[in-house]
Amino acid sequence: MVFYFESDVVEPPVTLFMGVDKHENEDLIKWGWPEDVWFHVDKFSSAHVYLRLRCGQTIDDIPSSVLDDAAQLVKANSIEGNKMNDVDVVYTMWSNLKKTQGMDVGQVGFHKEKEVRKLHVAKRLNALVNRLNKTKRSEQVNFRLAKEERDRKEREDKKRILREQKEKEKQDEKQRQDEAEIRSYNSLFKNAKMTMNTDNSGYDSDEFM
What we know:
Blueprint: E1 2-7, E2 14-19, H1 22-30, E3 36-41, E4 49-52, H2 64-76, E5 87-93, E6 97-98, E7 109-110, E8 117-121, H3 126-133, E9 137-139, H4 143-208
Antiparallel strand pairs: 1-2, 1-9, 2-4, 3-4, 3-5, 5-8, 6-7
């Protein structure tokens, strides 16, 4: 089961989501998308909140208002963190999450610590959390199937782009050949014209003799 929340602080609104428990979090870790940004309360247990970026977006493109929503949501879903005024929330791209043998269910590390960002949360903003909770909905998700479908579409898009590139290269090559033929024809035409002019001037000289 996945919980979804709609953040309308930007237009169009964005969706935040999280697993219902640590086992769902484990599936989200395993079957996450390259476009997913992961949020968690630093040094305390909490929900794993995700934001799925749109095509072409990077982690640097996330508006501060959306980061605030994600940070407050993950803090509100931390038993320890929710009781504290000052906590840090860490976030990074899903691809930077690292799972190794011996880790507990739902526990993760990072491939590159320098790619982990930190956001300070001074206190819980109840109005903000209440706004998000009003949009809360649950959905049963087959994480593996969703990821495989996403990857299939990506492969099809790459094949389509490759076909289009090859077709454009063929068209460009044909255009270059056509232009080369035209230049060659023009050159032959000029040479032929120059020869005829020379011959004619010789005949004229004979007539005056």
